[in-house]
Amino acid sequence: MKVSELEVKQSFDGELYFRLPDDLLKRLGWEVGDELEFIPQDEAFIIRKVKIDLRKYEKIELDFSSDDLLKYMMFAHEKNITFNELCEEAVKEKLKENE
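Given the sequence above, the corresponding structure tokens read:
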């Protein structure tokens, strides 16, 4: 396997990030939106795609205006979670209320 070095950059709001080259994503079979886990290993990390059992989930379609979507995505960012995690929390909370 080819070893690559990635440049860690800093966003305008101070968050650190790095970009994975398209050819690497393709070789790994990763796509935008895949959930990854970082596993500490010595002085580095192993990054692997989280395998999700889709049989445990139902598809729910959400319809937001562009303004609302931006508001919710910013809220998720402030909580340091993904938009999907925010939606999952909201659905779980609503299900609990209706029990």
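The chain has a mean pLDDT of 84. Try to locate this feature in the token string yourself.
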